[in-house]
Amino acid sequence: xxxxxxxxxxxGKSTLLEKFKIKSEGYKFYxxxxxxxxxxxxxxxxxxxxIEARGFDHFRRMETxxxxxxxxxxxxxxxxxxxxxISGVNLSKIKQSEQAKxxxxxxxxxxxxxxxxxxxxxxxxxxxxxxxxxLYQERxxxxxxxxxxxxxxxxxxxxxxSQLEEC
Length: 167
Description:
Layout: E1 2-6, H1 13-21, E2 28-31, H2 32-40, H3 47-54, H4 56-71, E3 77-80, H5 90-96, E4 100-106, H6 109-116, H7 129-143, E5 148-151, H8 152-155
Helix pairs in contact: 2-4, 3-4
């Protein structure tokens, strides 16, 4: 099974991924943004630098290409997706995959904003709180298409991917 963690920037996707690595249970662990940087942005130190230099359109194309390649792998995995990774064609590609379950980390905007504000490696933070709230609200409908939804307070109790099915 492939569990794909989705949610807004700062919702806790990477943190939960790191927590799961402690009890791997035969899963592989990936962060989609890290994989994009590794495969397509070797000349850049951060994903933010890659996006600023290449542009969001290029980044989204690389995101779709990289996600498709991981959906095609025959291995159990947990992958943290970027905040906008389920936009465009990606949501339908995920939903078409019989071996993938989308997991929405349902974290309130204020919590996400507090976690990401001031992070220079996140280009969208420069838009300001009001624009980020609009983006959060736009994406919320996509996130809610997930197979599994986990509230912030539930994330603290999770220690392994096998617990995701119990939520």
